[in-house]
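[agent] plan:
  1. take the single chain provided in the ticket
  2. run structure prediction with default settings
  3. attach structure tokens to the ticket
  4. add a short note for the reviewer (M.T.)
[agent] executing step 1
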Amino acid sequence: MNVGPWQLIIIALVILVLFGRGRISEMMGDFGKGIKSFKQGMNDESGKDMAKDLRLEQSADAAPAATETKAAAPSESEKKA
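[agent] step 2 finished; step 3 output follows
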């Protein structure tokens, strides 16, 4: 079953009548914002992965820092016991 140009025009007119021009332009704007947000999210994720890899490489190359251990203050439950 082929859909010709006249059928597409009729479908477009029916959609325009049902939703109105304002609602269609609003939906297309929302659709564009969604695509933009999706692309930005994908770029952020790949940037986080690269930053994570870089941090792992740097921590492997760095010498361990000297750490001091201090006695922790007893908790409330330890004080009662």
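[agent] step 4 note for reviewer: Residues 5-61 form the longest helix (57 residues).
[agent] ticket updated
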